[in-house]
Amino acid sequence: MGIKNQLEENLKTAMKAHDEDRKNVIRLALASIKFAEKEQNKALAEDEVNAILQKEVKIRREMIEDAKKAGREDTIDGIIKEAAILEEFLPKQLSIDEIKQIVAETAKEVEAVNPADMGKVMKAIMPKVKGIAASDVVSKCVKEYLADQ
Length: 149
Description:
Blueprint: H1 3-17, H2 20-40, H3 46-70, H4 73-87, H5 96-109, H6 118-129, H7 135-148
Helix pairs in contact: 1-2, 2-4, 3-4, 5-6, 5-7, 6-7
């Protein structure tokens, strides 16, 4: 069963259970997917749906940071719940340690030795971690690794 189908089934379950938070988050995710499908004029592949959900989770993380900066502690819990609901539909994400290991291996493969080689490493690593690691997290790990070289 595809992610989109899982979202639709979970939407029905949330509606029957009167779970407003879950229902709203899933509706927003489905709306983003349907918008992208209309924009591209085709049904999306699983990796494209994954990318949309990851983007939605990333937006929630940025919202949490913004809320902390603005002193809006009252909204943070709700945003965290939204991100958690979205993450349920994503494949298991790599841990930081796993990402660092892949970064080290990839940097050796492409013979990266300084921060100027970041583009080369990112180009080689992103296909390996597509859908299982957020690009901003990978980028941060690559920067740290190359700075230590």
